[in-house]
Design goal:
about 300 residues; four-stranded antiparallel β-sheet; globular; single chain; alpha+beta
């Protein structure tokens, strides 16, 4: 049960209350610690944003991603249906999106690699996802304790993988949710550039609580990427060991084939298999040693001045 103080704080300013709760949890949870690397943090302080679940952008995603991509309202209603909840459909739907930046130590370890991920990055992929799941459950439980309905779509039974000709796509894209919540924009390699850079992972929760949406301050959905800004950066392609990134974008099928089969073969040839975890190694090489690794690249100075 939520304390009366928590309820008062939430009702006074839901966005501020939730941001503090998420940041406090990331800072103090043992789940955000590496067991294998001197108990160091997996993620730095998070970014938190919000979106109106009925924002027209979520309908746009059905055209951009596919009609299978759920709107927040659809996700919450599926959750209510799964509980056998016959109450009226929620009058309000809000989305809470959080971005978890990868620590400097882990980014530094990956900068040194050229074909396979570092051990720290590999553990961030899998231990980090475990923590994202833990954090999502914490936020969901917190909201339910305050008397609201809430669901983390990535953890729900309706979270499904779609096999399209262009590659594998889930019916709930965390990066697109983060864009709707004003946390950043997309990049040539299909990554997501936030004010803390693109070396990050993200998650989200949908609720029937009323939360003021965060502004989307970017000129367009590619505004933070130097390649799309002025064509000056092709570092993603140079860093990709699979050759899956070009000026035409990111070839998901080529990328996935490299992740699923070739990387393990390379790791075995290098004699570096010990210590790696997970169904596949992960990669992320194109997320480090690039201008947007840990920030939004600044605009170049006008040389005519």
């Amino acid at each position: 049960m939520a304390s009366s103080l928590n309820r008062e704080l939430f009702e006074a300013n839901p966005a501020t209350f939730l941001e503090k709760a998420i940041k406090d949890y990331v800072a103090t949870s043992p789940g955000n610690r590496f067991e294998s690397f001197a108990d160091g943090c997996i993620f730095d302080e998070p970014l938190v944003g919000y979106a109106d679940g009925d924002d027209a952008i979520f309908q746009d995603y059905k055209a951009i991603i596919g009609d299978f991509h759920l709107t927040p309202r659809e996700a919450l209603e599926k959750h209510l249906d799964s509980k056998g909840n016959s109450q009226e459909r929620p009058a309000q739907v809000s989305v809470i999106s959080f971005v978890l930046p990868v620590t400097y130590e882990t980014r530094l370890s990956l900068r040194k690699e050229t074909v396979v991920p570092s051990l720290r990055w590999n553990h961030t992929r899998w231990r980090g996802q475990d923590f994202i799941n833990e954090l999502s459950r914490h936020v969901t439980s917190l909201l339910e304790g305050l008397g609201y309905q809430a669901v983390a779509p990535e953890l729900a039974d309706f979270y499904k993988l779609q096999n399209l000709s262009s590659g594998l796509v889930y019916n709930w894209s965390q990066r697109h949710i983060a864009y709707a919540a004003g946390l950043g924009t997309f990049s040539l390699n299909d990554g997501f550039i936030t004010k803390r850079g693109m070396a990050m992972r993200c998650g989200s929760v949908v609720t029937d609580a009323r939360i003021k949406p965060s502004p989307r301050i970017y000129k367009n959905h590619l505004a933070n990427c130097l390649f799309y800004r002025d064509g000056s950066c092709k570092r993603y392609a140079e860093r990709c060991p699979a050759g899956a990134i070009s000026e035409q974008g990111h070839d998901k099928n080529m990328c996935w084939e490299f992740l699923r089969t070739k990387q393990k073969e390379i790791l075995r040839e290098l004699g570096r298999e010990e210590g790696y975890i997970g169904r596949y190694l992960g990669c992320g090489l194109c997320q480090t040693k690039v201008p947007c690794e840990a920030r939004i690249p600044p605009k170049p100075r006008d040389k005519s001045r």
